């Protein structure tokens, strides 16, 4: 059965919406394959606006890999803005892919990548517009398998009722394996229907199917146990780890949109994983071990990517980019190659040390030296020990002094507020730090023309981190501390004018906390919020704290739990956590020990350069640290 | 800058939903992919030497958009036409490239020819409305601009306005739907009078209200030929010189050098 394009029905609506180009597709390097020649069809969704979703690396990588498979096709779909949503409802146009404008419901799989929990309501909009029943239990044989991935999928329990399946970890290999399971099942004539397909996926060990697990609760609301309700389904579902990044050099052909997006650059992941051990950082915990891409693969990917895309900026991505074992050679090699071409290089996520200034200088060789960003995260020495962000005040001052001395005019400092054990003094320490930064900068340059910006947001405890047991700080306290800090910065006569201040309110963090550490009972809250009009919760102009709180009150009315129970309550060691049956490889006892170490302000070194401290990932997952140096160099590009 | 090239391109089909900013990004990237030796401005953030003249609004298709590229190595116009067209997405199509010889291109774009397709509108009513509009001395319309609601005359800028019956693009599927096509030549004035302003005018003077959103295409831009009331090709002045002919362009070249 062929599927018709929805575009003729969508087109008349487009002149009536904002930025219609985002719904049109046709990006450079996008792919439209013949519907009938494929047997496995994926709709890949990033549950936010096109301008945020299009540059997403995860979606682009899977899109390319799946479309390279002979019998598989993949198209993309994004959250539509409320203006188009209203028109689509009025005119009966269902959720569509932007590639061939096919109805999402016609696909075999709807794969949704959740970088953040704030996309959950957008999933519900897409399901509803697609005509796919929102609750997985109500879906029939003709509905796609709704599959979640991305970092938030490491605790998919709050959306478990809306999902058929979830995948943890790197998607490259498992998406191919899933395609193969579906292809075989279809070739056999779909034996046992949807249920059997899900069972095949679950019993392979790599796919979490929530409906095959029952959750029992204690009368006080805590989870009693989570157990499989089918034979052949594993007790714990493991994450996936791609071990050789050089074998998976994607994206090869980056999507280049016509519409403006949040990242207008070609990005290359230079390594995955991070073992710096920052205790607040979920990404660092769930993506272990460190696996580097080699300098030569990075060079090849940049060369091809720039040529294929026409982008004039290259971003070298990772969780802590300066930690690549050959970053200096990569930086110099790329800077040499692109000198005088108006192609600029950027290196986000760097740490606080002077080495980074050398790198930044290399990257800005013929451009301007405008701003450098560092993330001390905690305002006091004590706080940084708690979170294991091993940066001393001396390090920071030395680094910024070098930066200002070498012509950088602006330094941005990132912090968090509401960290475990935090006091008012810890947060006010940020003001002292910022003043010292300006003082050092003025001394280094002899000029008053330097600036420092303090950027601060609320901390949210995340699953699979040592802080998964911690009480989240209430938003009143966060807001009070943020105000104290603002006053301390503003009222300073000597330095106040040189220091900028940006902050995020505490309330959205509470909602993020509810969704991050929630269990299946939170699903009713998400649905109630969506029914009350909740959309685009990552956007302050759409987010409503009141709507979340009133919906939670209503949806959890019959339960012994509430929002505070999920957020500001500390958990003890024996409590079953909603994600305990999902295995990121981290040893639970090690996590607990690290949590105790946090409270006692004990630091942990990086296992790349010091002996293994038994976090558990490598032996559990059969993986190992993969770092250079390779000793290879980037050669100059040959002009064809 | 060793050479400036003038490019006529079309914005067709789905690509009509691109904004001017979208197009300039797409062109810059296409220029880079095609390896065209574009010049850059000096300064901290160098910008490619590409300038755009009178871009059609978002949602409006066009057969006659113009830009000028400054290059640092000589380019053969025909080759640049092929390279740039191949590098741009289908729907942004390069139609013509000439080497700039004379004066300012923007100055030559005095007026536009617009086609407005009105699915479901009665061609006879459209014709009557057009006649009413042309008979009026002034037709005051309002439009919400970035600076707020503006009120201006939409009549004076309109050089000609005709209506005729057309075949609706969807006529194959919905045979009974009539379609009116307006064709208008409108001078570029400030504030700009756009086809929607003329449509607003038709509603005001004759109560003419088409049932569906208009599909607008710019067919041509150029100097107004006072004799015919139509536009001339704005690139002809550059081409005449290349062909060795004498004409007004020669004087422009003299001015330019």
UniProtKB/TrEMBL annotation, chain A:
InterPro entries according to UniProt: CHP03960_rSAM, Elp3/MiaA/NifB-like_rSAM, Radical_SAM_N2, rSAM, rSAM_horseshoe, rSAM_sf
Secretion signal span: none
Superkingdom field: Bacteria
Radical SAM core domain mapped to chain residues: 260-502
A single GO molecular function term of this UniProt record: catalytic activity
Pfam families: Radical_SAM (PF04055), Radical_SAM_N2 (PF19864)
Name the record gives this protein: B12-binding domain-containing radical SAM protein
Organism encoding this protein: Sphaerisporangium melleum
Lineage: Bacteria, Bacillati, Actinomycetota, Actinomycetes, Streptosporangiales
């Amino acid at each position: 059965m062929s599927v018709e394009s929805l575009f003729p029905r969508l087109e008349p609506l487009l002149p009536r919406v904002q930025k219609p180009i985002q719904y049109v597709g046709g990006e450079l390097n996008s792919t439209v394959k013949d519907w009938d020649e494929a047997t496995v069809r994926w709709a890949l969704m990033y549950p936010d606006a096109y301008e945020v979703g299009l540059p997403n690396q995860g979606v682009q990588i899977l899109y390319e890999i799946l479309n390279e498979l002979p019998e598989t096709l993949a198209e993309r779909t994004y959250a539509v803005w409320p203006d188009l949503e209203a028109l689509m409802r009025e005119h009966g146009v269902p959720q569509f892919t932007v590639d061939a404008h096919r109805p999402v419901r016609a696909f075999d799989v709807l794969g949704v990548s959740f970088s953040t929990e704030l996309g959950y309501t957008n999933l519900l909009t897409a399901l509803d517009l697609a005509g796919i029943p929102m609750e997985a239990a109500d879906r029939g044989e003709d509905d796609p398998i709704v599959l979640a991935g991305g970092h938030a999928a490491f605790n998919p329990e709050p959306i478990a009722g809306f999902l058929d399946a979830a995948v943890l970890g790197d998607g490259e290999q498992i998406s191919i394996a899933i395609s193969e399971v579906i292809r075989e099942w279809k070739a056999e004539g779909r034996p046992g229907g949807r249920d059997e397909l899900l069972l095949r996926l679950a019993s392979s060990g790599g796919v979490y199917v929530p409906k095959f697990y029952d959750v029992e609760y204690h009368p006080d609301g805590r989870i009693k146990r989570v157990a499989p309700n089918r034979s052949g389904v594993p007790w714990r579902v493991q994450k996936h780890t791609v071990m050789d990044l050089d074998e998976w050099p994607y994206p090869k052909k980056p999507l280049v949109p016509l519409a403006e997006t949040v990242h207008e650059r070609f990005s290359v992941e230079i390594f995955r994983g991070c073992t710096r051990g920052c205790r607040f950082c979920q990404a660092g915990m769930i993506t272990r071990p460190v696996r580097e891409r080699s300098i030569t693969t990075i060079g090849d990917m940049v060369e091809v990517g720039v040529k294929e895309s026409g982008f004039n900026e290259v971003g070298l991505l990772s969780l802590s980019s300066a930690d690549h074992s050959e970053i200096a050679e990569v930086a110099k090699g790329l800077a040499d190659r692109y000198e005088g071409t108006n192609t600029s290089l950027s290196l986000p996520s760097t740490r606080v040390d002077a080495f980074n200034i050398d790198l930044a200088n290399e990257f800005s060789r013929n451009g301007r030296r405008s701003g450098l960003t560092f993330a001390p995260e905690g305002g006091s020495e004590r706080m940084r020990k708690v979170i294991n962000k091993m940066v001393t005040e001396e390090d920071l001052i030395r680094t910024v002094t070098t930066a200002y001395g070498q012509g950088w005019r602006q330094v941005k400092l990132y912090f968090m507020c509401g960290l475990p054990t935090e006091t008012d003094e810890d947060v006010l320490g940020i003001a002292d730090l910022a003043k010292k930064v300006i003082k050092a900068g003025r001394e280094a340059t002899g000029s008053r023309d330097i600036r420092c910006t303090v950027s601060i947001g609320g901390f949210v405890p995340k699953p699979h981190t040592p802080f998964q047991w911690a009480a989240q700080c209430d938003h009143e306290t966060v807001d009070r501390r943020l105000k104290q800090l603002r006053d301390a910065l503003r009222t300073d006569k000597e330095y106040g004018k040189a220091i900028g201040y940006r902050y995020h309110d505490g309330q959205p963090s509470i909602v993020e906390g509810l969704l991050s550490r929630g269990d299946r009972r939170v699903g009713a809250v998400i649905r109630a919020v969506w029914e009350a009009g909740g959309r685009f919760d990552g956007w302050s102009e759409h987010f409503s704290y009141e709507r979340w709180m009133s919906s939670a009150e209503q949806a959890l009315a019959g339960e012994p739990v509430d929002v505070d129970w999920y957020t500001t309550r500390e958990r003890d060691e024996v409590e079953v956590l909603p994600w305990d049956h999902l295995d990121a490889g981290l040893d639970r006892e090690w996590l607990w020990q690290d949590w105790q170490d946090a409270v006692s302000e004990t630091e942990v070194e990086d296992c790349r350069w010091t002996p293994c401290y038994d976090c558990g990932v490598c032996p559990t997952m059969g993986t190992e640290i993969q770092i250079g140096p390779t000793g290879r160099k980037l050669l100059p590009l040959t002009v064809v | 800058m060793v050479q400036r090239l003038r490019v006529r391109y079309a914005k067709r089909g789905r690509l009509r939903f691109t904004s001017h900013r979208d197009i300039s990004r797409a062109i810059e990237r296409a220029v880079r992919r095609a390896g065209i030796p574009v010049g850059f401005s000096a300064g901290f953030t160098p910008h490619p030497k590409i300038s755009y003249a009178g871009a059609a609004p978002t949602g409006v298709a066009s057969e006659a958009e113009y830009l000028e590229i400054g290059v640092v190595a000589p380019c053969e116009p025909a080759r640049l036409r092929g390279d740039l067209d191949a590098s741009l997405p289908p729907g942004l199509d390069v139609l013509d490239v000439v080497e700039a010889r004379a004066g300012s291109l923007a100055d030559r774009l005095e007026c536009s020819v617009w086609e407005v397709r009105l699915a479901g509108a009665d061609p006879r009513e459209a014709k009557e409305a057009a006649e009413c509009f042309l008979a009026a001395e002034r037709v005051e319309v309002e439009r919400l601009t970035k600076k707020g609601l503006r009120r201006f005359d939409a009549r004076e800028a309109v050089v000609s306005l005709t209506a005729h019956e057309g075949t609706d693009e969807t006529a194959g599927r919905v045979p009974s739907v009539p379609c009116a096509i307006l064709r208008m030549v409108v001078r570029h004035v400030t504030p700009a009078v756009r086809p929607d302003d003329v449509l607003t005018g038709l509603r005001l003077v004759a109560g003419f209200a088409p049932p569906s959103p208009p599909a607008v295409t710019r067919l041509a831009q150029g100097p107004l030929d006072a004799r015919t009331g139509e536009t001339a090709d704005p690139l002809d002045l550059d081409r005449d010189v290349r062909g060795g002919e004498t004409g007004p362009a020669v004087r422009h070249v003299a001015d330019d050098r």
